[in-house]
Automatic annotation (TrEMBL), chain A:
This is ABC transporter transmembrane domain-containing protein. Residues 338-571 form the ABC transporter domain. GO terms for molecular function: ABC-type oligopeptide transporter activity; ATP binding; ATP hydrolysis activity. The chain crosses the membrane at residues 56-77, 135-154, 160-178, 248-268, 280-301. GO terms for cellular component: plasma membrane. Residues 19-303 form the ABC transmembrane type-1 domain. It is a multi-pass membrane protein. Its main location: membrane. Pfam families: ABC_membrane, ABC_tran. Keywords: ATP-binding, Cell membrane, Membrane, Nucleotide-binding, Transmembrane, Transmembrane helix, Transport. It is found in: Cell membrane. The keyword Repeat does not apply.
UniProtKB/TrEMBL annotation, chain B:
This is ABC transporter ATP-binding protein/permease. GO terms for cellular component: plasma membrane. It is a multi-pass membrane protein. Keywords: ATP-binding, Membrane, Nucleotide-binding, Transmembrane, Transmembrane helix, Transport. The chain crosses the membrane at residues 32-56, 68-90, 145-167, 173-191, 256-279. It comes from Perspicuibacillus lycopersici. GO terms for molecular function: ABC-type oligopeptide transporter activity; ATP binding; ATP hydrolysis activity. Coiled coil: none annotated. PANTHER family: ATP-BINDING CASSETTE SUB-FAMILY B MEMBER 10, MITOCHONDRIAL, ATP-DEPENDENT PERMEASE MDL1, MITOCHONDRIAL. Residues 351-585 form the ABC transporter domain. Gene3D superfamilies: ABC transporter type 1, transmembrane domain (1.20.1560.10), P-loop containing nucleotide triphosphate hydrolases (3.40.50.300).
Length: 582, 600
């Protein structure tokens, strides 16, 4: 029940709803006692043949009244309690989302998206259940159970109450015992199911191998065996699961038997009326639910506690890249100056960058090349402050970048990442992602620079075409070019293309680059690439290898040096010949 | 999600339901047995209150305490209770067992169907979706068979049983109680109509919410670098709010029409019963036992109603899942079929491609008029840039895809004329990505072929030089392969895949060489193994490293689906064409490259 304490802040925040809800629940529990009581009284009047029209009318009105109020109260406590629980899940989701937007790349490197999703879906679901059904079950079972027992003991016969309740602990003991067994078997069944799932996954991933070796029949046979296992494990669950209802009905039956038997004895010796006996039995029926509910409650609360623990841990993760309060609140501009001694990713040992020193004057173009893993992307990620914690300094316009306010700082950049990511909205919205109020002509201009305008017009819905699973599937090159348009639209102080022309052909690449040259007069551009043709016209070219700058200069200078650049350039020329069939 | 469910009319839903129930046909006998037990249990439940009624009316009210009939009553009551406990238990286990078996059959059917589908289907369908059909959707249907069906039927029996009992006790009053059926029916219908819409709406909003969250997490880098956190928070907030509203609507509908409403009807029923007895009592004496029994029955009568209503959303979900499963079962994109001449055997292993053209999408040809012959025991190598059509040639040869223009002959007969078994037995394909299954190394070499003995496995492993490294593993050949074999190097995985093919001892070898770089240590092992494997076998090899196929009898250079050069290594080098340039790219000295590039 610790989770109720953990959630105390929320209960306090929503105390009006919860207090009202609980009050209504208690009222319902009390009202519930009315009809059985009335039945008993009327039955006695009938038995004594003393019932009159007016009495019948009054009692009918009482029952109708109680029924009517119960209906209203039941409706409203649902709104109060379940409504609050839905509110809690909305609140937690918003909190998580806000938190996610503040976390830096190093957080996303550590966490898997699947896990984060699970927290935001399953865990929040479980917490919602605790704050809703959990609270309800706790209050209701205590209230109903307590009031019914009190009513039985004080308004009818405390002796008969004790006798009738004698078998009830058997339910608690047995269901508890079933519970432990069931839990164990249920886990086995879950495991069997998940291994069947794995098996299916594997067969479908390996379908080519299976077909190659003609193993279809054998594989189906194996699937049959595994699904057999699932059936057996589930039957084992069913064998325990099926015990609940009969056990309860047997014990309740015994309870009824005792209450009728002893009740009859009390009726005969005059300490009770038949009407009271009927009331008593109706009350007994009301007790079944609280008994069951209690077992259920433990389950809900247990899950809620674990889930709340996970979500809190996540929310307590520190935001690692934060603004200094005295930060420079201006958009950076001017010369970019790198002086980095060493950088290592968090939780890793090998240095990714070492001794990176260079300066890029405002308005110039920088080209960065080198093998995969040479540190090209890392160099950029430090510039846009996706990672911090390096030794040394990067300055823009003479001010170290970590002194800028993050929001102002990022205004300077248009970034086209290596793994082009588009959102599943329209192409228009994707291009205007960072400037939602851009006019259509602005968007079209950006698309023209990125050489994607024609492609877009060819889609049936044009700029309104939806991208992604629910829409058209774009080629890698098209996605890259839309990503470029998205960054170009901002007309940023510094444009970064991180290997973002890899999927377009040489001709398109040339067209995009020359359009960019015209468009970005006086603005800084940084390009990393595998293909040297993309950076051939840069003002400075850096060749990186294992995190160090091994060559630096303009294309012509580098072609006159013996080294990686020249080798690679020639190699790529030959490659393009081969690609075009000689 | 749930695109299908939205357009599903109630007629379609009924069709899906009938098709689903058809799966129960083989279990009709055990099912009827379970129903019979259920009927017995219901009788037991219904008789209990009648016994109490007899006790009250015949013994307590007239103060008639003759022992024998009371003992008989008590013993009968207890006996029925105990018997009922057992019957209910067995009935429930029986029913669940049947339901589980039905689902198993359905799973096997879906899985078998998946195995029979052609590669084309797998190209256009994400794997996750197919897995979901086989396991998760059938699991949702299981809920329907296990809980929904059981509850529906149980409730129906209970209904009938209680009404029979009521009619035997008092026809007039029972007839009055019948009036509640239309009211309940109306409430259930209304609830179903409204809630299925609202419930669907909430589910859609939830999946929208999750999609947004998932996408945001994936694109967080972009969101942050373009400073759109605020806007995304706002957008997420709106979706979250919409989901909240939908949740509230559901709570309201449930509150208005679900349990509270049924309980209200129960109260009305109680009033009718009381009123009836009350009014009667003003004229004549009334048996109080009958009153007791009626009140008791009313209690029991409304419980099943509540149960049924709670199952409705499961029911809805099961129908949606079932319709998805049936769409897969009705898929027509099946694997190419054979003419199955049983006596057609591959003996020499001569392969001939004759004017073969092929297109995946029916628009663009990926292979254009391909013709060549691989004579028994010879090696034909396919080289070319990505997308030149090399893999397509293998895909057709392996019968992964159907072709219609041109033909592939094996020992002079079209490959369509052999049985699939014969083709698979004689052709060994070594895939680019050596896929390892869960299981031991031994399992991975043998697969499910029981004809392969342990000796053959070791022999095959020795043959491809995988034996030394396997032997060194802690459990040797019994070593478990975990996580798709990621604990082995790519070279080692490759060798295991070789052994798998060699254990079959195929007549024809088809090699799809890995593009990924293999550690130099195993690289040499692999090359020697390949050379040994090719000996005496007709081989068709896709090669990325030209050095590995220099001794091929014929090298075909493909470009955009056409054979642009053909000949032996030396002949092709002498041509100084495409092959020569490719060769230079891999082995050439800088000076020669510079020469070629500059003099182009």
């Amino acid at each position: 029940m610790k989770v109720f304490r953990d959630l105390a802040w929320f209960f306090k925040q929503e105390r009006k709803s919860y207090l009202l809800g609980i009050l209504l629940l208690l009222l319902v529990a009390a009202l519930q006692l009315v009809p059985p009581k009335v039945i008993g009284i009327v039955a006695d009047e009938i038995g004594n043949q003393t019932l009159t029209w007016s009495k019948l009318g009054i009692w009918t009105a009482v029952i109708i009244g109680s029924g009517f109020f119960m209906y209203i109260f039941r409706y409203y406590w649902r709104i109060c309690i379940f409504g609050s629980s839905v509110k809690l899940s909305r609140l937690l989701r918003t909190k998580l989302y806000d938190h996610f937007t503040k976390m830096s790349s190093s957080f996303y490197q550590r966490k898997r998206i699947g896990d984060l999703m699970a927290h935001a879906t399953n865990d929040i679901q479980a917490i919602q259940q605790t704050a809703g059904s959990g609270v309800l079950t706790l209050v209701d079972s205590l209230a109903t159970g307590g009031s019914v027992i009190l009513a039985m003991a004080f308004t009818i016969s405390w002796k008969l109450t004790i006798i009738a309740l004698l078998p009830m602990p058997i339910i608690a003991i047995l269901t508890n015992w079933y519970g432990t067994k069931l839990h164990h078997r249920f886990r086995l069944a879950q495991e069997a199911f998940s291994s069947l799932n794995d098996k299916t996954q594997e067969s479908i991933s390996g379908i080519k191998v299976i077909k190659t070796f003609g193993q279809e029949k054998e594989d189906i046979e194996e699937f049959r065996k595994q699904s057999d296992d699932v059936v057996q494990k589930n039957i084992a669950v069913a064998k325990i699961d099926a015990l609940y209802d009969p056990t309860i009905s047997a014990v309740v039956g015994l309870s009824f038997f005792l209450s009728i038997g002893f009740g009859a004895y009390f009726v005969v010796n005059g300490s009770m009326t038949i009407g009271q006996l009927i009331s008593f039995n109706t009350y007994l029926g009301l007790l079944i639910w609280p008994m069951l509910a209690f077992g259920w409650l433990f389950n809900i609360v247990e899950r809620g506690r674990a889930s709340y623990g996970r979500v809190s841990t996540l929310l307590n993760e520190k935001v690692d890249i934060e603004d200094t309060s005295t930060g420079v609140d201006q958009v950076p501009s001017g010369e970019i100056d790198y002086k980095i001694q060493i950088f290592t990713y968090p939780n890793e040992n090998t240095a990714v960058l070492q001794n990176i020193n260079f300066a890029l004057a405002q308005g110039k173009t920088l080209g960065i090349v080198g093998k995969t893993g040479a540190g090209k992307t890392t160099l950029l990620k430090l510039l846009i402050r996706e990672f911090e914690g390096y030794k040394g300094e990067i300055r823009i316009g003479g001010i170290p970048i970590h002194e800028y306010k993050l929001d102002a700082f990022r205004r300077a950049f248009g970034y086209v990442p290596q793994d082009h990511f588009l959102f599943s909205t329209s192409i228009k919205e994707n291009i205007a992602f960072a400037k939602a109020d851009a006019s259509l002509s602005e968007i079209e201009t950006a698309a023209e620079i990125a050489n994607i305008h024609e492609d877009i017009l060819n889609f049936t819905e044009g700029y309104q075409t939806i991208v992604g699973e629910r829409g058209v599937s774009l080629s890698g090159g098209q996605k890259q070019r839309i990503s470029i348009a998205r960054a170009v639209l901002l007309n940023p102080e510094i444009l970064i293309l991180d290997d973002s022309l890899s999927a377009v052909d040489a001709k398109t690449e040339e067209m995009i680059l020359s359009a960019l040259r015209n468009n970005r007069e006086g603005k800084t551009t940084i390009i990393t690439s595998h293909r040297l043709s993309a950076i051939q016209h840069a003002d400075i070219i850096l060749v990186l290898d294992e995190g160090k700058i091994v060559q630096k200069g303009m294309h012509e200078e580098l072609m006159n040096e013996e080294g990686w650049y020249k080798d690679m350039y020639l190699h790529q020329q030959l490659e393009s010949l081969v690609e075009h069939g000689g | 999600m749930d695109k299908e469910s939205k357009v599903m009319s109630s007629k379609e839903q009924r069709l899906v339901l009938f098709r689903l129930l058809n799966y129960a046909k083989p279990y009709i006998r055990p099912m009827f047995f379970a129903f019979f037990l259920l009927a017995l249990a219901t009788v037991g439940e219904v008789v209990g209150p009648i016994l109490v009624k007899i006790f009250i009316d015949d013994h307590v009210t007239p103060r008639n305490f003759e022992m024998t009939p009371i003992i008989i009553l008590a013993v009968t009551y207890l006996f029925i209770q105990i018997a009922n406990t057992f019957i209910m238990y067995f009935q429930s286990v029986k029913f669940q067992t049947i339901a589980l078996k039905i689902i198993q059959q359905m799973r096997i059917d879906v899985f078998s169907k998946v195995q029979a589908l052609g590669m084309k289907y797998f190209d256009k369908t994400p794997n996750g979706g197919i897995v979901s059909r086989v396991t998760n959707d059938t699991e949702a249907i299981k809920d329907m068979f296990v809980s929904v069906l059981a509850v529906f039927i149980q409730s129906a029996f209970m209904f009938v049983g209680i009404f029979i009992a009521m009619f035997t006790l008092n026809v007039k009053l029972a007839a009055f109680c019948l009036l509640f059926l239309p009211i309940l029916y109306f409430i259930i219908r209304l609830y179903r109509k409204i809630s299925s819409k609202f419930y669907q709406d909430m589910r859609e909003r939830l999946s929208g919410l999750n999609a947004k969250l998932n996408e945001s997490l994936q694109g967080m880098g972009i969101i942050q670098v373009f400073r759109q956190e605020e806007r995304m928070r706002r957008e997420f907030g709106e979706i979250n709010e919409g989901h909240y509203q939908a949740g509230m609507r559901n709570i309201k509908v449930d509150g208005l029409l679900l349990r509270p409403a049924v309980d209200l009807v129960y109260i009305l029923a109680v009033i009718i019963v009381l009123g009836f007895f009350g009014i009667t009592s003003m004229q004549t004496a009334v048996e109080l036992g009958v009153l007791f029994a009626f009140v008791n029955y009313l209690n029991r009568f409304f419980e099943p109603v509540n149960n049924v209503m709670q199952q409705l959303s499961f029911f809805q979900q099961a129908i949606v899942s079932a319709s998805r499963v049936f769409i897969l079962l009705d898929e027509t994109e099946i694997a190419p079929s054979q003419e199955n001449h049983k006596d057609a055997k591959i003996i020499d292993g001569k392969i001939e491609f004759k004017n073969l053209s092929f297109s995946y999408d029916g628009k663009q040809d990926v292979l254009k008029n391909i013709s060549f012959t691989a004579y028994p025991g010879e090696t034909v190598a396919l080289v070319g840039h990505t997308g030149s059509g090399k893999s397509s040639i293998i895909n057709l040869l392996m019968r992964f895809y159907e072709y219609n223009r041109g033909d592939i002959l094996m020992d002079g007969k079209s490959i369509k004329q052999y049985t699939m078994d014969e083709l698979r037995k004689k052709m060994g394909l070594v895939l680019q990505d050596p896929f390892l299954f869960y299981g031991t190394i031994k399992d991975n070499i043998r697969l499910h072929n029981d004809e392969i003995t342990d000796e053959t496995i070791i022999e095959a492993a020795k043959f491809v030089q995988a034996h030394p490294f396997i032997e060194k593993l802690p459990d040797g050949y019994e070593q478990q392969v975990t996580e798709r074999g990621s604990t082995f190097s790519s070279g080692q995985r490759q060798l295991i895949a070789f052994a798998r093919t060699m254990a079959m001892n195929p007549k024809i070898l088809i090699l799809d060489e890995a593009t990924a770089n293999i550690d130099t240590e195993t690289e040499e092992l692999i090359q020697t193994a390949l050379a040994k494997m090719r000996k005496g076998r007709t081989t068709i090899a896709i090669a990325h490293r030209l050095s590995t196929i220099q001794d091929a009898n014929l090298i075909l250079v493909l470009h955009k689906g056409e054979i642009v050069e053909r000949g032996t290594h030396q002949e092709l080098l002498a041509k100084k064409g495409l092959y020569y340039k490719m060769y230079l790219l891999q082995n050439g000295l800088r000076e020669t490259i510079e020469d070629v590039v500059i003099h182009q």
